[in-house]
Amino acid sequence: MKPRFYLLFLLSAIAFGQNNWAYNNEVQALKAKYDTIWDSSKETTVFTGSSSIRMWNNLESMFPGHQIVNTGFGGSQATDLLQHLEELILRFNPKNVFIYEGDNDIVSNKRPKQIIETTEQIIANIKKENKNVQIILISAKPSTARWNYKRKYKKLNRKFKKLARKEAGVEYADVWNAMLNGKHVRQDIFIKDGLHLNEKGYDLWFSVIAPIMNNENTNTTK
Prior knowledge:
By secondary structure, the protein is α/β, with parallel strands linked by helices. The chain has one domain: Rossmann fold (3-Layer(aba) Sandwich). 49% of the residues lie in helices and 13% in strands. It has 9 helices and 7 strands; from the N terminus they run αβααβααβααβαβββα. The chain has helices at residues 3-37, 51-54, 59-62, 78-83, 85-88, 103-107, 112-129, 150-166, 199-214; strands spanning 44-49, 67-70, 96-100, 134-138, 170-173, 180-181, 184-185. A 5-stranded parallel β-sheet has the order 2-1-3-4-5. It has a two-stranded antiparallel sheet with strand order 6-7. Strand 6 (180-181) and strand 7 form a beta hairpin. Helix 7 (112-129) runs parallel beside helix 8 (150-166). Keywords: Signal. One of its GO terms (molecular function) is phosphatidylcholine lysophospholipase activity. Residues 57-204 form the SGNH hydrolase-type esterase domain. Residues 1-22 form the signal peptide. This is SGNH hydrolase-type esterase domain-containing protein.
């Protein structure tokens, strides 16, 4: 191996190792948290994915009567969720799983086709453990910080919707259109970074997700 290519390979390996190490710590912290508060005798709904899920701090109070487990881990991509599927989803034997991935994947220059292929693997692995679980794919969201990626996000969302139509027990939650004002993203639903949601933003997500929570077998978005 030529020195230049070896150096690039080594740096890539180091970067991957550091990223994976950081996620391992976060995943283990989530595991320790739910080891103490999760009741295995109750039906469970898991919300997981990247920071838009991690930062949804009032999920439990918004869905009273449901045992909610929030295993969102910031900055994650679909491949990261696939790698940590056991700790973040499978161990809870959930009735419902809401997944938000794809946002960071697009910014990392992954093609929608790649993201869908990974999502299909995630679905297959979850269904292998419990064929009756309901999986809800939350659409990639629009944001002011990443509005320049809107065409790629819209393409990904079309593929998410198509996947939900094809796969039994999979639904699509369209938060994209709920967050628009006409053809433009609303400006009042984000914190200062223009990427993550404020209370108004999560209220919009709730308006899309609540009907699915209450009518798990009815998918009006298909």
